[in-house]
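hey so i finally got around to running the thing on that chain from the lab meeting. sorry it took forever, my laptop kept dying and i had to restart like 3 times. anyway pasting the input first so we r on the same page abt which one it is
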Amino acid sequence: MKNIKSILLSSALGLILLSACGKKQDTTSEDAVKKDSTALSAQADEITFSKDQYTMAGIQTGKVESRNLNSIIKATGMIDVEPSSVVTISAPLGGYIKSAGLLAGQAIKKGQVIATLENPEFIDIQQQYLESSSRVTLLQKEFDRQQLLRSQDVNAAKTLQQVTSDLQVMKSKLAALEAKISMAGINKAALSEGKILPSAHLYSPITGYVRTSNINIGKYVNPTDVLFELAKNGELHLALNVFEKDINQIRVGQSIRFGLGSQQQVDRTATVFLIGKATADDRMIPVHCHLPKSSAKGLLPGMYVKAWIEKAADAVPILPNEAVVQSEGKDYIFIQTAQSEKGFTYKMVPVKKGIQQDNLTQVTFPSTVASDAIIVTKGAYTLLSALINASQEE
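ok and heres what got predicted. didnt touch it at all, straight out
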């Protein structure tokens, strides 16, 4: 296929050259290049493309990356939230759902009402609370009176002790009822005014979004039922599944590269922070990774990902496969050596190929190639065909 592609590109570029050559009569080749804005110029292993030719050829450039192609463990997984960021909501006293309109994925704020429940028990609790509160007030006054009388040695010490005990018991009961009211979500402001309400509210303890919703209006829920799962914003992590045969080669702190399952690029980074200790039925072990903010951009919980876990070893320079071209049995790359208003100049440089893996090739460069050289990563065969044609024309 590459030979056919080269022939077609050679033919197209050849027509450009023939058009330019047709104008050569008494002028030199340099004059022809100046007159024709789309002409090619070539000198041994260098070639210049005009801006139009550069655009038509779809050339892309990049720089050399270092990666360990020999020791990559492939894994799949999904974007998840940190376990500490997930909150499960239930109704401590149960009840019938009166109103609920939250959907999975909906944004919520801390303190927001997420559900309203009704339960006859709410009425009983409020009644007991009001009665106990009134009883505490009465006992407090009696305690103050008995204490005064005791200081004047008018009453018996036993009478004061009994009143003190009754007051403490009633205060304890009132505190327990107040805790129940708080857990149930009953409006304490209305209760302090002597109003008894048959309903209670559930409030969000965090700012984030609804992960799951398991309720509908009219449904009776028990205290053990999970009504909602809420998750905090911005605290994502990567949950991978790794085969048990590879798990002994993974360490906390290792760097990984990953990308979405729907994309070819594997250009996001993460760091292993937790390795599971148990094997599932499918012989996979969970591996969890932290995401930097730069890698978490645009990600949502539940997205499917593919990942490369890089073992600790020497990294090698790599390029995309299509950056390396072959001519007369030798391998070459093209380096951009100049850019001006006239166009772009590229130089063909010999290299040695090494390991190939996942559309990447290990490359050994001559010592003359700078580490920050701009290398053609796409369109190298177009440049090779043009260089061959231009050399033949000369």
